[in-house]
Amino acid sequence: xxxxxxxxxxxxxxxxxxxxxxxxxxxxxxxxxxxxxxxxxxxxxxxxxxxxxxxxxxxxxxxxxxxxxxxxxxxxxxxxxxxxxxxxxxxxxxxxxxxxxxxxxxxxxxxxxxxxxxxxx
Amino acid sequence: xxxxxxxxxxxxxxxxxxxxxxxxxxxxxxxxxxxxxxxxxxxxxxxxxxxxxxxxxxxxxxxxxxxxxxxxxxxxxxxxxxxxxxxxxxxxxxxxxxxxxxxxxxxxxxxxxxxxxxxxx
Lengths: 121, 121
Description:
- The structure is a homodimer of 121-residue chains.
- Chain A is mostly beta strands.
- Chain A has 1 helix and 9 strands; from the N terminus they run βαββββββββ.
- In chain A, strands 2, 3, 4, 5, 6, 7, 8 and 9 form an 8-stranded mixed beta sheet that branches.
- In chain A, a hairpin with a 3-residue loop joins strand 5 (58-62) and strand 6 (66-69).
């Protein structure tokens, strides 16, 4: 493989809440996404989900607390924990999660991207 | 868990080539380390090793190529691939790898930190 410039990868797409895969390591996919506004409440029964923010501001609403992430901050939503991400305009973040992780968990919404349709860039 | 400010975590230690664990997700450990000069040639038989650089410049010598990583760049050394990391003074980087991954693979050198001795910060 070649090295990956994360900033360049963010320049390759503009869709929001549409994770793009940039690498795979030990069965985990490294994904980047842009967000703005609110996604949907969902959970991943069997997978932890790591978020690292690179630009903007990502809010992870949980049922019992709200996590506010600025650039350089990260959080892991443990498996089974309901969460609803929301973001200020043009927020850039990375997620690391198993290849099996579905975009919005069991919930299928209009903005859900199926595992098969998540694109490598 | 609380959110993690990656920069603050780098401020908590000064040792070089001594990975500190900051999080665990899906059986993978998220570690940060500082480096300067050269580590040693080694390999991890069963684990890929993801590197993301935050500050300075990290060089990953492989037997057939040299990967040069500046801040915002990442690379995954595939399992079984020999590598020798080197870095400019005060380079800061993150590694994500399975909890089973040994610091310098099968090689035990003076600077090897055993899996059991890798510290959570």
